[in-house]
């Protein structure tokens, strides 16, 4: 069974923007053989119910991820430095999406 | 224009969408891979939506108290006016692609005209549909090109589909008395304009996809008066089974 070949094409990660101006968020992944097919497959899987107004599709192998074994050295040092958040400012009314 | 003429016009268009929707529903679970399976089914869902809107409007204009469901489930073959092209079977993936590709070109042109008519219901339906069909065209063109310019086998299969389906294209620009009335009212372009558009578009795209445009010798005719190929009966037998076996069933 381990010999079964995956014939569905390469894996792509899909990022969706719910409204113009907002950041793109990871929505899931699709299989496709090239860019055009990837964007069409992603559209059919992830944006048929009004989920977004913008979309990026990226080859999964182009994404560089942090190795979980590096978690401590990468992320722990910021745990005790809350002052790095600008939480000590008062936000004016009318600012959205912060 | 008389309401009954407009009703019949909507019924023809709605019937073509309905039968294509059924053909596309048959593609469910038969796609080459999961993503395309969903894409094929989505094409069917769009067409079903267009069909429902058109048939609803057809019965409203007709004013005989029938419903869109009555049209879909209580008519027999000779009372259906869909193009013969739309009922052709999914012999293989290439047949489905070619059938839907040609119909997407046709529908795109039809809706493009209807968007501008002075009829809120119809222009509303067209405004929504024109966007859906634009995507159908893009998706199906991708497949025509991919299969045409793909492997030897994919090329042969899609060329076969083009050749086999070619004789059904003539109906898309054929005109009868009703068409002429509809055209006069500005609800459709002429058969000649449609023919030029389809031939130019298909020829240039097939050539780009390394495919040959068939020489047309014989074109079918008849769906405008309810004449069909052998395939429509089987579609209706399946589609109308529940209504026929258990009339007015409710759950």
Structure description:
The complex is a heterodimer of chains A (98) and B (251). Chain A is α+β, with helices and mostly antiparallel strands and 98 residues long. Chain A has a single domain (10-84), classed as Roll (Ubiquitin-like (UB roll)). Chain A contains 2 helices and 3 strands; from the N terminus they run E-E-H-E-H. Chain A has helices spanning 35-46, 71-75; strands at 10-17, 25-32, 54-59. In chain A, strands 2-1-3 form a 3-stranded antiparallel β-sheet, with helices on one face. The radius of gyration of chain A is 19 Å and the shape is flat. By secondary structure, chain B is mainly alpha-helical. Chain B has one domain (3-245): Ferritin, core subunit, four-helix bundle (Ferritin, Up-down Bundle). Chain B is built from 11 helices and no strands. Chain B has helices at residues 3-25, 34-62, 68-73, 84-87, 93-114, 120-148, 152-165, 177-184, 191-208, 231-239, 241-245. Chain B starts with a helix and ends in a 6-residue tail after the last helix. The interface between A and B is medium-sized, with 14 and 12 residues.
Q: Determine the mean pLDDT of chain B.
A: 96
The CATH H-level superfamily of chain B is Ferritin, core subunit, four-helix bundle
How much helix is in the residues of chain B? 55-70%
Main interface by residue count: A-B, 14 and 12 residues
């Amino acid at each position: 069974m381990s010999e079964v070949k995956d014939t569905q094409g390469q894996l792509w990660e899909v990022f969706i923007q719910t409204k113009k101006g907002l950041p793109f968020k990871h929505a899931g992944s699709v299989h496709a053989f090239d860019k055009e097919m990837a964007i069409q497959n992603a559209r059919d899987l992830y944006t048929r119910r009004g989920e977004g107004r913008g979309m990026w599709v990226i080859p999964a192998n182009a994404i560089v991820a942090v190795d979980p074994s590096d978690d401590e050295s990468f992320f722990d040092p910021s745990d005790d430095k809350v002052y790095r958040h600008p939480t000590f400012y008062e936000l004016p009314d009318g600012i959205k999406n912060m | 224009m008389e309401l009954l003429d407009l009703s019949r016009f909507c019924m023809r268009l709605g019937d073509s969408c309905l039968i294509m929707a059924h053909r596309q529903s048959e593609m469910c679970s038969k796609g080459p891979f999961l993503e395309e399976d969903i894409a094929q089914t989505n094409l069917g869902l769009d067409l079903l939506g267009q069909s429902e809107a058109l048939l609803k409007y057809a019965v409203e204009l007709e004013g005989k108290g029938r419903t869109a469901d009555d049209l879909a489930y209580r008519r027999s073959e000779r009372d259906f006016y869909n193009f013969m092209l739309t009922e052709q079977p999914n012999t293989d993936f290439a047949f489905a692609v070619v059938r839907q590709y040609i119909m997407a070109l046709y529908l795109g042109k039809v809706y493009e005209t209807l968007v501008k008519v002075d009829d809120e219901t119809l222009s509303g339906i067209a405004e929504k549909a024109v966007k859906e069909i634009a995507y159908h065209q893009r998706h199906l063109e991708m497949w025509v090109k991919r299969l045409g310019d793909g492997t030897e086998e994919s090329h042969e299969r899609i060329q076969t589909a083009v050749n086999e389906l070619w004789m059904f294209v003539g109906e898309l620009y054929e005109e009868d008395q009703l068409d002429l009335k509809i055209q006069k009212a500005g609800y459709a372009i002429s058969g000649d304009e449609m023919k030029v558009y389809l031939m130019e578009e298909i020829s240039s795209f097939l050539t780009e996809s390394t495919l040959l445009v068939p020489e047309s010798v014989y074109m079918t005719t008849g769906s405008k008066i309810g004449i069909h190929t052998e395939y429509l009966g089987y579609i209706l037998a399946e589609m109308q089974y529940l209504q026929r076996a258990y009339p007015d069933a409710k759950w």
